[in-house]
Amino acid sequence: MAKRQVGHKMNAEIEERTVIKFDPPVSTQRYMEVCKILSQDATVEKVVDFGCSNGQFFKHIKRIQHLRQFVGVDVSYGVLESAYRAALPLAWECIFKRDRTLNIQFFRGNVSDQDSRLAGFDAVTCIELIEHLNEKDLQAVPATIFNFIRPKVAVITTPNRDFNVVFPELQGKRHWDHKFEWSRAEFQQWCSKVVDQYPSYTVEYTGVGDAPSDKYQDIGHCSQIAVFKRSHQSTEDESQSSPPPPSFPYELEFQTIHVGKEV
């Protein structure tokens, strides 16, 4: 739910000019929603998070007990170092162990490149990533995820431009590095093209970050989410396609482990 921070005396003008505060923060809502989606399938054991940034998502996903392997990918060594530190097991986690051992790796690389170590992962997440990509890299995303990795589920989130009317002082885009911000119609059009190209997948839409009042009608959520799921019965062409030759363009920068009870 979104709330407005206002003074004791409130009128319409002040309400329009005050800053939105999400409770919990919309970034936390995104992480919680993605984890909720991944938790629904106990066969999801290996997850790769493209654009993992400083590792805040890992603090949430590590609570999924059936997870066995987590890989974070980013182009920046600096944020990968921060993500690694965030992923190190805490003292109490060494005492009260997970049900299963969780192996964590952080690779430096680009989502447009295809690394054989990720082929066959159960789930892919791209949380507020695609809007930072240039056109060439964005065009390569569907092939990397749906043709090369071919996960059981893929979750992609991106800002909803329709929601920007809630931010009256916003000029331009929400972040200086955003190459674009799609409306719900534009995002769904892009996703529809993906499932047309890869028909073994279906897509559903959700989102997080509600509008602050009834004043804003039919603008959707602050962050829009597409959930792609692969059908159990792949097409004949996909099942007969030969795998590409091994390729390892990513650099493994950091790794750690959360030891489980079975060890």
UniProtKB/TrEMBL annotation:
The top of its lineage is: Eukaryota, Metazoa, Ecdysozoa, Arthropoda, Chelicerata
Instruction: Enumerate the InterPro entries for this protein.
Output: Hen1, SAM-dependent_MTases_sf
Cofactor(s) listed in the protein's UniProt record? Mg(2+)
Q: Which GO terms describe its molecular function?
A: metal ion binding; RNA binding; small RNA 2'-O-methyltransferase activity
Q: Which EC numbers characterise this protein's activity in its record?
A: 2.1.1.386
Record bears the keyword Manganese: no
Give the protein's recorded name.
Answer: Small RNA 2'-O-methyltransferase
Top enzyme class: transferase
Known catalytic reactions = small RNA 3'-end nucleotide + S-adenosyl-L-methionine = small RNA 3'-end 2'-O-methylnucleotide + S-adenosyl-L-homocysteine + H(+)
Family listed: Belongs to the methyltransferase superfamily. HEN1 family.
GO BP terms: namely: piRNA processing; RNA methylation; siRNA processing
Which Gene Ontology cellular component terms are annotated?
Answer: cytoplasm; nucleus
One Pfam family it belongs to: Methyltransf_23
What keywords tag this UniProt record? Answer: Magnesium, Metal-binding, Methyltransferase, RNA-binding, RNA-mediated gene silencing, S-adenosyl-L-methionine, Transferase
Q: Give yes or no: UniProt keyword Membrane.
A: no
